[in-house]
Amino acid sequence: MKRLDWYIIKKFLSTFFLSIVLILSIAIVFDLTEKMDDFYENQVPLREIVFDYYLNFLPYYLDMFSQLFIFISVIFFTSKMAGNSEVIAILAAGVSYERFLRPYLVTATFLFAFSFALGGWVIPRSTEKMLTFTDKYVQKFTRENARNVRLMVDKGTVLYIESFQMRTRMGYRAALEHFDDKTLTQRIIAERIRHIDGYTWRLENFTERQFDGMRETLVQGEKKDTIIAVLPEEMFYTAEQAQQMNNTDLYKHIQKLRERGAGNVKAFETEWYTRFAGPLGAFIMTLLGVTLSSKKVRGGMGKNLGIGVTLTALYILFSTVSTTFSVSGVMSPFMSVWLPNIVFLSIAFVLYLRVRR
Question: What is the rounded average pLDDT for all residues in the chain?
Fold first, then answer.
């Protein structure tokens, strides 16, 4: 690392963190203005507002705005260097364009690692606290009832519950089916199903049918305890809960959902791929920013910033829209998340080849 490298790295990081602090301050002011009435009506203690909500508000929005301000920061200070003929002097001194890019890529690597750690472990914990606070004081979104639950609780075993109440841990009109390959071997229908403890459930007013070829055995009873490898909480998993899991827990949960044939697995897969594709955007935004602003142009910094904001807005819009493709089934979660990165990396590479010449 030479003096030039440290010069660019310091400019990059100082501009990035200064801009992030400014935008987060503005975001807090707007959010506080919007939620002030809710805080007052619910008489929320100041300590909870500061430590349970806004302290956990910062990592989430820091990660959300990071790609935008990486791009803007690179364009801002690189355009200023180009305007002062510093870039011309660096290249005229015999420094190749690839060597000129090195400190940018080193800084992008640091920001990638920072964003990956933030999104994989810090934000899930802070999001959980923030959503708990929101559910308690601002807008209740926790579901107490689940309908039409269908889960593969074990290999060849499918559980169906028409309705389930979390408060009473009681379900109504349940069916438990066992299959050998594709052949139905046992079917238990119960008017009610109650969670007792762990994986122990109680079937009430049940009818059990055993199938052996053309023979059928029928058993009826009032109560029967059985082991079903599912917990009540698993019936209420939503896309919001994917944001509250760290990378390790999220990966394990996706494997469990795939084994059970759950219908909302795509939401969790999208969150999983986003945690890798999002941080890698640091390299794309850095390369785009350098190639757009390292050349001295008429119009100066304002023109470069205008182009930068436009491209970043398109990148964020593209990323948001493309994730809906996986939900609708048009694309796989992997492709829908990675498509914006592939498109903008291609644009950045073309610009790099033009500027390099």
Answer: 89
Same domain, 158 and 213: yes
- Residue 191's domain comprises 145-231
The per-residue pLDDT for 140 is 72
Q: pTM score, two decimals?
A: 0.83
Q: What is the pLDDT of residue 181?
A: 83
Q: Which residue has better confidence, 236 or 117?
A: 117
Tens-place pLDDT, residues 330-341: 788 999 999 999
What is the structure's pLDDT at 190?
97
3 state SS for the chain: CCHHHHHHHHHHHHHHHHHHHHHHHHHHHHHHHHHHHHHHHCCCCHHHHHHHHHHHHHHHHHHHHHHHHHHHHHHHHHHHHHHCCHHHHHHHCCCCHHHHHHHHHHHHHHHHHHHHHHHHHHHHHHHHHHHHHHHHHHCCCCCCEEEEEEEEEECCEEEEEEEEECCCCEEEEEEEEEEECCEEEEEEEEEEEEEEECCEEEEEEEEEEEEECCEEEEEEEEEEEEECCCCHHHHHCCHHHHCCCCHHHHHHHHHHHHHHCCCCHHHHHHHHHHHHHHHHHHHHHHHHHHHHHCCCCCCHHHHHHHHHHHHHHHHHHHHHHHHHHHHHCCCCHHHHHHHHHHHHHHHHHHHHHHHHC
Residue 131 shares a structural domain with residue 269: yes
Q: Which residue has the tokens 């914006």?
A: 340
Give the pLDDT of residue 147: 87
Q: Are 156 and 78 members of one domain?
A: no
Question: Would you give the distance in Å from CA 85 to the centre of its chain?
Answer: 41
Number of domains in the chain: 2
More confident residue, 304 or 351: 351
Q: What is the mean pLDDT of residues 295-313?
A: 76
Domain termination residue (choose one: 207, 231, 255): 231
